[in-house]
Each structure stands twice: as C-alpha cells, then as structure tokens.
Structure to design on (210 residues):
C-alpha cells in the first residue's frame, strides 16, 4: 500500500487552449486598435492590452502549479509547460507591438499595418485550432493541417516584413520614421515567428509520442 497519494489528472490540453484564448483576445484587440487608430487613446489601449497579458500570465502560473501537483496522460508535464510558455510568448509579443506605437509616438500608420494585424489575428485563431486538435494528435489530421497553415502564416509574415522595410527605405526620407517603423515591422515579424515556435514544439511532441 502506498503512503503517497497520486495527484489529480490535469487537463493539459484544455489549459493550453485557455492560454490560446488570451492570444486571440490580444490579437483581436490589437487589430481593433490599429484599424481605427487613435493616437490619443493609446494610453488607455495599453492598459487594456496589459490586462489581457497579465491575466494570461496568471493562467500560465496556474497551469504550472497544477502540473507540479498532478499528472498528465499522452504528453509529459515538461512538454506541456514548454508549449504553455511559448503560447504565453505569443501574447507578450502582441502586447509588445502595441507598446511600440506609443514608444515611438506614431501619429499616422503605414499601409502594411492593417495587413500585419489581420495576419496576426489569423495566426492566433489557427494556433487555437491546432491546440484544440492536439488532444487527438495520434489520430487527427487537422492538427497537422494547422501546423502547415501556421508555417504558411510565418512565411507570409517574412515576405510582408521584407517588402514593408524595402518600401520604407525607398520612400521615407525621415530618419526618425525609418527607425520607428523598422522596429515596429520587426515586432510584427517576430510575432509571426512566435506562432511557428509553438507549432514546432507541438510537432516535436507529436513525433516523440507516436
């Protein structure tokens, strides 16, 4: 007879999906703020965005606490924690983008901004779809389809980043504008990369467990 009680089973896939919901909320909020850009409202927007990011951080801490006390099936706890961290990084990088518009005192948006914002919203939804199907990774084809779609989104982000920076340096003569938008476009591109970071981690776990 064991003197040690086994911890509770952790719904790791459900907890990961909950984290994705905050990435979706952050992406949607970013898109809303950029589609109707109001520089004077950035202070309030940053507070609201930070609330999303902070709540996501609390969810990540709660997930790790449950993992430490419980057990998982199909996927080991360390892999779940690693994927959770990468999902939280997506939300952090979305907040970073909005912060740059305030830091660089941006009054007028460049045309590529809307395309980047829509791409990030699309990426966040695809990320959630992948995690939703991750539970059934041994039989589901959809999780692999989502991984491919995320890779495509990352490549679209790379192309958009290259064309945006190229046009910026060809057309702008203002060094401050060039510095600001080079950094902003870089933050957009890194956010697209962060989707692929999660997809690669998920794919690695699938390979390890099948």
């Amino acid at each position: 007879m064991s003197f040690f009680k086994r911890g509770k089973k952790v719904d790791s896939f459900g907890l990961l999906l909950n984290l994705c919901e905050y990435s979706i909320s952050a992406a949607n909020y970013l898109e809303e703020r950029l589609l109707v850009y109001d520089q004077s409202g950035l202070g309030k927007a940053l507070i609201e965005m930070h609330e999303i990011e902070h709540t996501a951080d609390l969810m990540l801490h709660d997930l790790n606490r449950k993992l430490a006390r419980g057990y998982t099936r199909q996927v080991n706890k360390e892999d779940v924690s690693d994927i959770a961290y990468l999902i939280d990084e997506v939300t952090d990088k979305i907040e970073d983008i909005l912060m740059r518009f305030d830091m660089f005192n941006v009054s007028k948006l460049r045309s590529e901004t809307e395309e980047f914002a829509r791409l990030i919203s699309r990426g966040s939804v695809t990320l959630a779809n992948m995690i939703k199907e991750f539970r059934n990774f041994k039989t589901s084809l959809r999780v692999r389809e989502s991984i491919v779609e995320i890779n495509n989104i990352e490549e679209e982000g790379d192309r958009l980043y290259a064309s945006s920076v190229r046009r910026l340096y060809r057309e702008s003569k203002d060094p401050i504008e060039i510095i600001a938008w080079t950094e902003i476009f870089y933050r957009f591109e890194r956010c697209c990369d962060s989707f692929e970071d999660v997809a690669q981690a998920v794919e690695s776990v699938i390979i390890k467990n099948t």
Summary: Residues 104 and 179 are 9 Å apart (CA to CA).
